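Long-time lurker, finally posting.

We've been working with Probable peptidoglycan glycosyltransferase FtsW (Bellilinea caldifistulae) and I want a structural starting point before designing mutants. I don't trust myself to interpret raw outputs, so I'm hoping someone here can both generate the structure tokens and explain anything notable. Sequence follows.
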Amino acid sequence: MGEQTAVNSRIASPLGESSVRPIRLGIDVPLVLAVMFLLGFGILMVYSASWQPSMLAEKPVTYFFLNQLRWVFVGIGAALFFMYVDYRRWKKWLVPMVLVMIVLLVWVAFFGEVRFNSRRTLFNGSVQPSELAKLVIIIYLAFWLQSKQEVLNNIHFGLIPMITILGLTAGFIMLQPDLSATLTILVLGGLMFFLAGVDWRQIILILILVGGIGAFFLLVSDTGRVRFEQYLVALQDPVNAHDHIKRSIESIVRGGFFGVGIGKGSSKFALPVSHTDSIFAVIAEETGLLGAGVVVLTYMVLMWRGMSIARKALDMQGRLLAAGLTFWITLEAILNMGVMVSVFPFAGNALPLISAGGSNLTMTMAAVGLILSVGRVANHKKNEEEGRAFSAVVNLRRGNGRRGVSRAYRSSHTRR
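Top reply, 14 upvotes:
Generated this for you. Predicted structure of Probable peptidoglycan glycosyltransferase FtsW:
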């Protein structure tokens, strides 16, 4: 569905007959439409939600809007580039990508810009290496798990090396510190290990390890511990929830079903980082449950099409790549929206394709391009096979410019 468009390509036979051969676009149209909707809607909501942050930063009121618009074009360029490059070619670039990722993570941990008590960004907030790390770790694991498929159930060749890879990446991210990105990396790694088809006993061990590491990070991180305590308090009595969560819930209640109108919301002036982490609350207030529901459904379409592409991939690395990237995008969306309604403890996850921010938007669009590349390669292979079968049928009918089988009436006439 949505993966092909047929046109009438007529091939004339010697007797004037015509045949119709399907020509496929090679891209998943529903996925592209879902992504374009989220990008367009995101630009609109960033424009509505970024007035106050722009003024607080002593910039023109359209500063974050125009900046987001520029990053949208950069992201589209990244998506097109990754889509038209065969995803299998990235195998030879795995080691350089990991080295660049580690260098950037170490650099930002020691020399990054301090924002919200963390060193997470470089170049005036334009580059956030933890977002690159999420993309790189998924690409690396997709190829690494495929190459180790025969020994994955051997704990010495499968689980231990994977824990080492994830632990190294997560440790560098915790130096910033960035608890939400750390836990996201660990969850994505465990999921991809599961998708690779390892033994269920190792899956249980992975769950225990990820849970234990997550609990450890919560204990050693003052921010994480405070946020978890606030989450428990909010579960017992929402009245005692953190001010951020209370304002978010107030925004959703104020929006009702149809919302107060885009640009007319007032909660964005009280919500912290209304144009990034809190933008879903602004969406719920200004477009109501109707608009918020459309956003949720669009992410569901994105997940459906991404998993469909993964299922039809030519090889295991394509399946792992498409599935891992799809899960990453939808996981970020679920966490962001869940935090705004107090389903999850507060985290700094952006709303993919909507929240303002160059690094997250560019990496997400690169992920979309890679997913489309997996589907495009599979469709190209399918087209080749159908083309060979179609040509064989046409050649069989044409023969050497005449029919290969005599007609019955001709045989009878000859006998007479």
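Before you design anything, note these points.
Strands lie at 113-115, 118-121.
The chain has one domain: 30-397.
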